[in-house]
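Chapter review: from sequence to fold.
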Amino acid sequence: IPAYASLLRIGSPENIAGECKKALALGYGAIKLHETTTPAVFAAREVIGPGIPLMVDMNCPLTGEQAIAFAKACEDAQPMFLEEPVWPPEDFTALADVRRKGGLGVAAGENACTEYQFRQMMNAGAVSHAQPSVTKVGGVTEFLKVAALADQLGVKIVPHSPYFGPGLLATLHLLATRDDGLVEMFYLKREACLWGGRADVDATGHVAVPSGPGLGYEPDRGVMERYRVA
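The C-alpha cell string follows.
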C-alpha cells in the first residue's frame, strides 16, 4: 500500500523543509504536515516539488471564516486537502462552507463515529476526502459501510491510521480492497516495534499487507514483556 509521511508538529519552516527532504529520501511518495501557518505549507511545497501530494492537518484550530482565508492563502501551494480546519470537528456546515469558498479539498472523519455520522458529513458536502479510523468508527464492518457510502457519493477515502498496533494492520487490509488508498504512517523513530519491523515503509514508499491469519502478524511477546507496566 502506498504510504504518506505524517509529520509531527514542527513549526519552523526551515526544519519542516529538512524533514520533508528526509522523508522523500526514505521513499515516501506523499507528505502530510501538522501545521497552521502558510510559511510552513509553502516551505514544504518548495522542497518537495509540484508532483508530490501535500496534505495539511490543522487539528481544528479555526473558525469557518479563518479557515476560508487560510485555504485561499495556501492555494498556490496546492495542498490536496486541509484536514479538520475548524472547531468543532462536527460542524459540517462550516466545513462545507470552507470547501466551497476556500478553493481546496477538505478532509475529516477521525472524530466521527459510525456510518450515520459520515452520512451526515457527506450529505452536507463537508468533505472531499473522508477519514474513517477503524479503531474509532466501529471496526472493520462499519469502516466498510463508510467506504461504500463514500464510493456512492463520490468522496475519496483516506483513512486516519497513525497507529503502531492492530489498527495499522487492519487499515492495510482495508486499503488492499481499494485502488485509491494511501496509508498514514507516523513519521518518527520508534524504540521498538510489535511486528519486528514488518509493517514499515520500504524503499519504494509502500507498506506490505500482512498475509498471515487474522490481521496477519502475531505481536512480538519479547517487546510486550520489555515494556510491560509492573
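Two observations follow directly from the output. The first strand starts at residue 3 and ends at 6. The mean pLDDT is 96.
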